[in-house]
Amino acid sequence: MNHRDDAAALDRDDPLASLRDQFALGRDTIYLDGNSLGVPPKAAASRAAAVIAEEWGDGLIRSWNTAGWFALPKRLGNKLAPLIGAAEDEVVVTDTISSNLFKILSAALRVANERDPKRRVIVSERSNFPTDLYIAQGLIEQLDRGYELRLVDHASELASAIDENTAVAMITHVNYRTGAMHDMAALTRIIHQAGALAVWDLAHSAGAVPVDLNSAGADYAVGCTYKYLNGGPGSPAFIWVPKRLQNVFSQPLSGWWGHKKPFEMSPEYQPDDGIGRFLCGTQSIVSMSLVECGLDVFGQTDMATLRRKSLALSDLFIELVETRCSEFPLQLVTPRAHAERGSQASFEHPHGYEVTQALIARNVIGDYREPRILRFGFTPLYTRYVDVWDAVETLRDVLATEAWRAPEFAERGAVT
Ligand SMILES: *Cc1c(COP(=O)(O)O)cnc(C)c1O
C-alpha cells in the first residue's frame, strides 16, 4: 500500500466500522494497546453510574438478589462462553488469572495424581507470562511433594518435553511478547497422547482470536477480561472447566462462594456442584458489572469476522513497517503465518523502550516488553486501517528524526 487513501478505502468497506462508535476513544489517539488494557465501551460509564446509584444506592443489600449480583459470575461466564467454544455452565468470571491458575493447576494436579501418581512434572515455556510460572512455582513449593516445573526454550521442544512423567502441560495460547500462537487442538492431542492434562491460558486469545476449547478437547483454561474483552482495569478474569472435570475435585481456595449452600452457614465446606465450586469469596461487583458492557459489543459480531479484520490490520502493519521503515533496525518477531499469529505484531529495535515512549508522546500508544520489543495490538472493534497507516508514518518520523533520543524517553515508569 502506498497511499493513506487506500487505507481509508478499506475502512469504508469494513463491516465492523460502525462498532467503533460504541467506544470512548479520544479522537486523536491511535490505540494499539488493547492487548494490554482495552478501551472503555461508552456503555461502561452509564452502567457504572447505575450500579452505584441505583443498585448499590437504592437497592442496598437487597441488590444481591434483586440486581442479580450473586449470580453475576455465572451469568457473565455464560455470556463469555461462545467466544471460547465453551458450553453453558462451564465458565465463571471471577478473581484474577493468577489466583485462577492456582485453582485449576491444583485441581489438575489432583486429577493427574489420581490417574498416575508417578507423574510429577508440569511442562511450560520459559517465555510464558511470568505470573503463570510464578504461580506454578509457588504451588509446587506449597505442595512439597516433589513436583517440578520443566521449561522449554522453544515451542518446537514441547512435544518431546511432554512425556510419561508429565502431569500437566500449562500452555499460554498466544505469547504475550511475540504474538506467536499455538495450534490448540494439535498440542492438546500431543499432551493427551502423553497421558497428561492440558491447561490453557487465554489471556491474549479471548476476544482476540477464535478459540474452541471443547472441540480442542482442552482440560482447563483461564483468561482475562481487561485486555481484548474491554472489561476495564483490573476487571475479573475467568475460569473454564468442562463438565466432565468439574466435580472430580474441588479447588483448594475453598471459600464460601464455592460452597453448595453458602447461606446455610454450615461449619463444613461442601463444594457446589458444577463450575460454581471454582469461586472463592465475595466479588468486586462494580468492576464485574462493567465486563458485561464489553461482552455486549462482541454479541453484535462474531469471532470469524473479527479475525479476518485482525489479520488484515496486522498484515498491513507489518507490510508498511517493512516497506516504509526499511532503513531502520526493526526486526519482526511475530510469525508471518496466519495460523501462528495472534492479534498483535511485535518488532525488536535496539532502543525499543525509547521508541515506544516517543510514539506514546505523539499519541500512538503501543507498549514495550523486555527485551527490546515494541508491541502493537490490533483490536478490530475500534481500530481502523487509517490508524495503522498513521501509526507507521509516526513511527517512521520518530525513527528518521531520531526524536526518540530525547532524554525524557529513557526514563522508566513503574509500568512499561
Ligand atoms: C495478562 C496476563 C496475565 C495477568 O494475570 P493477572 O493475575 O490477571 O494479573 C496472566 N497470564 C498471561 C499469559 C497474561 O497475558
Automatic annotation (TrEMBL):
The pathway where this protein functions is: Amino-acid degradation; L-kynurenine degradation; L-alanine and anthranilate from L-kynurenine: step 1/1; Cofactor biosynthesis; NAD(+) biosynthesis; quinolinate from L-kynurenine: step 2/3
Which gene is the coding source of this polypeptide chain?
kynU
Q: Which InterPro entries match?
A: Kynureninase, PyrdxlP-dep_Trfase, PyrdxlP-dep_Trfase_major, PyrdxlP-dep_Trfase_small
Top class in the EC scheme: hydrolase
User: Which keywords appear in this protein's UniProt record, sorted alphabetically?
Assistant: Hydrolase, Pyridine nucleotide biosynthesis, Pyridoxal phosphate
Give the organism, scientific name. Answer: Caballeronia mineralivorans PML1(12)
Taxonomic lineage is: Bacteria, Pseudomonadati, Pseudomonadota, Betaproteobacteria, Burkholderiales
The reactions it catalyses are: 3-hydroxy-L-kynurenine + H2O = 3-hydroxyanthranilate + L-alanine + H(+); L-kynurenine + H2O = anthranilate + L-alanine + H(+)
**Residues annotated as binding pyridoxal 5'-phosphate:** 97-98, 129-132, 172, 201, 204, 226, 256, 282
Q: Which domain of life, per UniProt?
A: Bacteria
Amino-acid biosynthesis as a keyword? no
- Gene Ontology biological process terms in this record: anthranilate metabolic process; L-kynurenine catabolic process; L-tryptophan catabolic process to kynurenine; NAD+ biosynthetic process; quinolinate biosynthetic process
Its name, as the record gives it, is Kynureninase
Record Gene3D superfamilies = Aspartate Aminotransferase, domain 1 (3.90.1150.10), Type I PLP-dependent aspartate aminotransferase-like (Major domain) (3.40.640.10)
